[in-house]
TrEMBL record:
<dbReference type="InterPro" id="IPR013324">
    <property type="entry name" value="RNA_pol_sigma_r3/r4-like"/>
</dbReference>
<dbReference type="InterPro" id="IPR013325">
    <property type="entry name" value="RNA_pol_sigma_r2"/>
</dbReference>
<dbReference type="GO" id="GO:0003677">
    <property type="term" value="F:DNA binding"/>
</dbReference>
<dbReference type="InterPro" id="IPR007630">
    <property type="entry name" value="RNA_pol_sigma70_r4"/>
</dbReference>
<dbReference type="GO" id="GO:0006352">
    <property type="term" value="P:DNA-templated transcription initiation"/>
</dbReference>
<dbReference type="GO" id="GO:0016987">
    <property type="term" value="F:sigma factor activity"/>
</dbReference>
<protein>
    <submittedName>
        <fullName>RNA polymerase subunit sigma-70</fullName>
    </submittedName>
</protein>
<dbReference type="Pfam" id="PF04545">
    <property type="entry name" value="Sigma70_r4"/>
</dbReference>
<dbReference type="InterPro" id="IPR014284">
    <property type="entry name" value="RNA_pol_sigma-70_dom"/>
</dbReference>
Length: 194
């Protein structure tokens, strides 16, 4: 295992100075990260080849823009995560726009019972959607920096120290931003949704 880390670091150092063979080797070493990121953040498997190619391009871009201030793997992982989440949202929107334009003949029209799965909790899904809508409005009421801290902490699973390093601020500033953001969200929700 230790040799794997040493090999990775050696290849990374060579890739960062521009050695082409090391970049290719680094792409091969990060192949599992690219594939797992697609599976986790953008599971649209009929687009897998394009998503995979984009992931490799992102890794190459990260090699060029890496600044040695944080872990390279974290850096690549966060770029892949955000790219695939944004792509997933885009693909869902495009697919829903395509399906809205489809019309059916009377013979082909779907019966409501054909489209409802017996195991679906419609009321629960509706209430969950309402809660998420309220949460989104509360998030929109935050300052940009508070929103970033909340997203990194709760959605991305970053620790307070990681957020501080990522944003280039002190850990105590992150703690205060998080505390104030949560208080602001509570106040927003209690004022507008009693």
């Amino acid at each position: 295992m230790m040799n794997d880390y040493k090999d990775f670091n050696r290849v990374l150092r060579s890739a960062l100075v521009g050695e082409e063979r090391s970049k290719v080797k680094l792409l091969d070493m990060l192949d599992p990260l690219i594939r797992s990121s697609i599976k986790r953040y953008c599971p649209v498997f009929n687009e897998f080849e394009d998503l995979y190619s984009d992931g490799r391009a992102i890794v190459l871009s990260c090699i060029e823009s890496f600044d040695n201030k944080r872990s390279f793997l974290r850096y690549v992982e966060s770029y892949l995560r955000y790219y695939y989440l944004d792509t997933y949202k885009y693909l869902l929107k495009v697919n829903s726009d395509v399906h809205e334009g489809v019309t059916y003949d009377e013979e082909e029209s779907l019966n409501i019972f054909d489209s409802i799965d017996a195991g679906v909790d419609i009321e629960g899904d509706y209430l969950e959607g309402e809660r998420l809508g309220i949460l989104k409005k509360a998030m929109d009421s935050l300052t940009p920096r508070q929103e970033t801290v909340v997203r990194l902490f709760f959605y991305e699973g970053f620790g307070l120290s990681e957020i501080a390093n990522f944003l280039g601020i002190s850990k105590w500033t992150v703690i205060n931003l998080k505390r104030n953001a949560i208080n602001n969200m509570r106040n927003f929700i209690s004022c507008y949704y009693k």
